[in-house]
Each structure stands twice: as structure tokens, then as C-alpha cells.
Amino acid sequence: MDSAVKYPTPQGNPETAKFWQQTVEGKLLIKRCTACGEVHYFPRSICPFCFSDRTVWEESSGEGEIYSFSLMRKSASGPYAIGYVTLKEGPSLLTNFVDCDLQRLRIGQKVKVVFKTTDGAPLPFFTPV
Amino acid sequence: MSIKGKAYIAGIFEHPTRHAPDKSTAQLHAEVARGALADAGLSKADIDGYFCAGDAPGGVMAMADYLGLKVRHFDSTDTGGCSYIVHLGHAAEAITAGKCSIALITLAGKPRTGVMPPRATGAEADFEAAYGATTHNVYGMCAMRHMHEFGTTSEQLAWIKVAASHHAQYNPHAMLPDVVTVEDVLNSPMISDPLHRMDCCVVTDGGGALIVTSETIARGLKKPLVRMIGHGEALKGPRGGKNLDLTYSAGVWSGPRAFEEAGVTPKDIKYASIYDSFTITVLMQLEDLGFCRKGEGGKFVADGNLISGVGKLPFNTDGGGLCSNHPVNRGGMTKIIEAVRQLRGEAHPKVQVPNCDLAIAHGTGGLLGIRHAASTCILERA
């Protein structure tokens, strides 16, 4: 999807409000559980691994590598690449790759987070380093 | 308590239509219900259990009312395309527990005529909805990773479509009855890397229905006896993004549960109905069910190994979703129906597996590369 694409506005909720407040600042937050030490994404209040409520926000480096991807050749807004990025901190997340030559994407490629505007909070995307 | 041998599939019906602009979705549900009842030799008043999924307009309350059903047990579990294999297991549980004795399961819809309703979303919506996940690109991600880890090739995936097309040529209702070659698949347009158009299933209007009942009732009916001996179901998703692995599905859990309950192994299976939303779906499921080792699916499906009369594991002898029918973008129902045809000896003579006494029907639902369900059913000729 190119920059002309209008992305949906995150609806947000009390559980995820902090995440969206921070994307405005250009920060990608993940959740860490202080009981079991595991990090997860997308953020939950209760740890999906140990079910403790002792989860805290942590800023991700925004760096990672492509786990897999697929280039959709046709869509109303043109070709776009969906994929999973495995963050340096561990968790993998679903995203699109933007601001790059989509034909040259490859598994294992290093990428970093970039934010794209919506009518509300910015959304995280990734681009090759 | 096991369901082994407690439930029989007494009626099957696959709607012959592939395009139904002049019918309503509820009407199609009623037509397939009538078809399955006629096949079983039962009437609507006999039904005391009803199962339907998200394709039933208005849900189970509205659908049961429209059909004029009076039931004492119902279930509207929705796990996408495999819902009906899940329903089959749940119907067997209900029959085993005495909660109902004659269950109807229906599927119908018109995605070829109209637009499908949007998928229900959960807590993940804000974090995923913007990224344009469709079936094509999500299954494409699975195929891409499978190729990366195991060296699986587009040629190998193409063999799955080739096998399906060999079967579809004998199905007068198949949407795509022409036999295709590996080259045809590779030369078809790339849709979402690495999946070509011919790696994708058809989009059809239509539906299907099943009648499930007890041994006592089934033995009083005319059709050859087909009973369930094992069932499994499972869910898989990113679960917080830890150790993401797109090379396997929830079939790694649903399959062994079904085989264990049935007391058989993949080697014993004479015919396999495997959900074929895309070629990669089949390849991964065959590995996950234990027909070959993880990563060796490409070799397993190559050179016609899935073609009836040619290979070791005849699959989807109706032409499957890849060539015949994929009503409502939900392939689980037709998988069960063709397995029952094989066990009854009612498949087309050109694709009928000789002495077919043990079959598997397996499917996934949802999005394989994000969150999905899998369900496995082992069926036996009684």
C-alpha cells in the first residue's frame, strides 16, 4: 500500500489506550510480564503465557526481521505486502512492508518500524533497514 | 467416554448448483436439508438435533425457525470452513450422550453471487485490520515460509491441483472439469506470492447437509452404513507472537486425537478428504496428519501420488475445492460428503477407491497463517 492509502483509524479501548498514545510519539510498545518475564504482542492486561496480571509496557527497539511475507499482486489500492516481523525483543507481529521495492523483500531481511497516519493514532508498519 | 462407533452418517447431500443468483441463502439451507433427509430416508419431523455455523442467516434460532425444526439439541459453533467437521464430532457426542438421536447439519451460501459478510474480529482488530489480510496472502505467507524452511517448490504444490483436476473431469457438477498440468498451474497468474491462480480454490454458491444418527436408527435405513470412529478438534493462533511457526497447523493436534480415538494410523487410511482452500493447505495438512514427515509434503504430493488409481493416497475424488465446489468459502462439508460416498462405494467409478473401508475427512477454518481451527474425522464402513 502506498502513502495515498487511507488506513483505518484504531478504535482503541481502555486496555490498549497507552499503546496508541505512544504511537503518536513514534514509539512501538510491547507488553512484558514481570511474573514470567515473557513479552507479547498485541498487548493484553493479563499475560497470555502465565495468566498473571503483572504486565508492564515496554518500548520496543522497533527492529526485527521478516519471518514471512506475501506480495498481493492485485487490490483496489495496488499491490501490497503483508508479513510477519519478529522483533528483536522476541514477539512476532503482523504488518505490511512499506516505502520499499516490494519485489525485493526476502525472509530474514532486517526491518524497522515506521508509522503511518490515520484519522486517529498512527499505525505501525515496517520497512527494510 | 468415546464416540467411537456411536454415530453414523445416514444422509448426505451436496447441492448441485455452483451459482444460485435466484435463490435465497435460507432457501439453499432448506434444499440441502431436504436432500440429506431424502438420502437417509427420513423426514423433517424425525430431526431432534440441529447444527449450523456462521453461514446460516440469523444464526441457529432463525434458521431452525425458518426450517420449521423442533429440536432438543443444537450447536452453532463457527470455526469457518471446518465448522461442519466440528459439528460432526459434536453431533456424535450428543448422540452418544443421548441428547439427540437424529441430527441435521447444514451449510449454504452465495459468495459467487454476492459479497461475503466481513469476518468477525476480536481484540486483535486494531493491531491487524489495517494490514489487508485476505485468504490469499495469509496462506501465501505459509507457503513462503514452508518453501524457505523445507525447499518446497511451486511445482510440488501444482501437483495437488493437477490431482484434483484429474478427479474433477468425472464430476458433472464440477466448476472446473478440465484436466490441467503442472505447467498450466505455474503459468497461471501470480495472485499472492507464491500462490498462482490455480493454487487457489473456486468460489461457488451452494451448500451441503448431513444426517447423523445412532447405530440403531442407521441400521433401519437403506443406505450402506458409515460410522465415525474418531474425531479431533484444535485451535491455533499467534498467542502473543511467541515462537511463531507458520509451517504447521492445528491439525498436528486434531489429527492425533482422532487417530487415537479410532485406533488406526495414517497408513491404514484408504481415502483422504483434505481441505483444499489452497494447494499449500493440503500439503501442510498431509504433513500435520502424519501421512508424511514435516517438510516432506512436497515430495509426497508430487508425481500424481494423490490421484485415485495412480498414487498411494487418493484425495478429494470429487475434484475438491480446487476444481469442483467450495460453497460459501467453507470446504469442510464437501470433504465429509465425498468421504461418505467413497465408503458407500458411491463415488464415480473412475475415482472410486477399491474396497474403501476407512477414510479421513479433515479441514481447517479461519486463516491458516493467523488464527484458525482444525478438525479431523475418521470414518469407517460398518
How would you describe what is shown here?
- The radius of gyration of chain A is 15 Å and the shape is globular.
- The longest helix of chain A is centred in the N-terminal third of the chain and has 7 residues, at 17-23.
- Helices cover 5% and strands 38% of the residues of chain A.
- Chain A is mostly beta strands.
- Chain A is built from one helix and eight strands; from the N terminus they run H-E-E-E-E-E-E-E-E.
- Chain A has one helix at 17-23, and strands at 29-33, 39-40, 55-59, 63-72, 80-87, 92-97, 110-116, 123-128.
- Chain B has 382 residues and is of the alpha/beta class.
- Chain B folds into two domains: 8-113 and 205-227, 3-Layer(aba) Sandwich (Peroxisomal Thiolase, Chain A, domain 1), CATH 3.40.47.10; 132-202 and 228-381, Peroxisomal Thiolase, Chain A, domain 1 (3-Layer(aba) Sandwich), CATH 3.40.47.
- Chain B contains 13 helices and eleven strands.
- Chain B has helices spanning 25-40, 59-67, 83-96, 125-128, 135-150, 154-168, 182-187, 215-219, 251-262, 279-288, 297-301, 320-324, 332-344, and strands at residues 8-14, 49-51, 73-75, 102-109, 190-192, 195-196, 206-213, 226-236, 271-274, 358-366, 372-381.
- In chain B, the strands form three sheets. In chain B, strands 1-7-4-2-3 form a five-stranded mixed sheet, sandwiched between helices. Chain B has a four-stranded mixed sheet with strand order 8-11-10-9, sandwiched between helices. In chain B, strands 5-6 form a two-stranded antiparallel sheet.
- Classes of the chains: A mainly beta (129), B alpha/beta (382).
- Chain A binds chain B through residues 1, 7-8, 10-12, 15-16, 20, 38, 40-42, 44, 48-49, 67-75, 80, 82-84, 86-87, 90-96, 107, 118, 123, and chain B through 123-134, 136-138, 140-145, 148, 189-195, 238-242, 244, 246, 369-370.
